[in-house]
Description:
The protein is α+β, with helices and mostly antiparallel strands. It has a single domain, classed as Fumarylacetoacetate hydrolase, domain 2 (Alpha-Beta Complex). It is built from six helices and twelve strands. The chain has helices at 6-16, 33-52, 65-71, 124-130, 148-158, 206-219; strands spanning 55-61, 77-82, 92-93, 101-111, 131-142, 163-168, 184-189, 192-198, 229-234, 239-240, 246-251, 255-261. Strands 1, 2, 4, 5, 6, 9 and 10 form a seven-stranded mixed β-sheet that branches. It has a five-stranded mixed β-sheet with strand order 3-12-11-7-8, with no helix packed on it. Helix 1 (6-16) packs across helix 2 and helix 2 packs across helix 5 (148-158). The radius of gyration is 17 Å and the shape is globular. The model has no long low-confidence stretch (mean pLDDT 95).
Amino acid sequence: MNTPDAATWIADTLEHRAPHTGAMPPALRPQDLPAGYALQDRVSALLTARGRGATIGWKVGSTTPAMQRLLGVPQPVAGRMFESSRIAAGAVVDFGRYRRPAVECEIAVRLARPLDAREGTPSLADVAAAVDSVHPAIELVDDRYGDFAAAGAALMASDQFFHAGLVLGAAVPHWRSLDLAALRGATWVDGREALVGTGADVLGHPLNSVAWLAGHLAARGQRLEAGEIVSTGSLPLPCWAQPGQHIEIRIESLGNVGLRFSG
């Protein structure tokens, strides 16, 4: 049997919930982040061709000091989100579909117009001017690596950096009057507060995450497009889920959104 190429190997293991660490043939593993992102491009095209839908936006991970310590990745990392990523607010999610799922409490934005850092590094004001709406959001992530250090940032980036789903809360019409950095966000499990963070934990301000992403894409000859969603990074650490749990995120002045895992 012929050994598949790296993109096919990752797409196949996604379909079968197989782990990467210790299983991916060494010859297929990306050796650095640029190689990881190049592989991400190929994986994304293959996933779209296999029915996951077009890209609807981006997630940015490893954006807080606590997350960087947890993952051993001292910088932000971007991954794509797909049409199939969308999960309805309040949905019951099949726990058995994932290897080790977790809920992240995030601030997400939808862009009104393109944001192109090839034209210069965008300021916070430039980013705010490009944003159409702000939402409380859950990023559903799935740990298919186990040993983060052994997996490495390059492999995790090639696999969309843990992304498994997006639950988008209602748009907040008055968001421009809010200090997003000062907002408190918490993850609640079965009616009890479990984890807390603030907007400032995300690169100093959630919109800094969007600016970072614009710069990342510019270095690869790309830009953020109008209508794309950016999930800016988890305020607290991930909340690792258990079967049957109801998990909700609540962000001050933005609102709340939740889901339930099947038992």
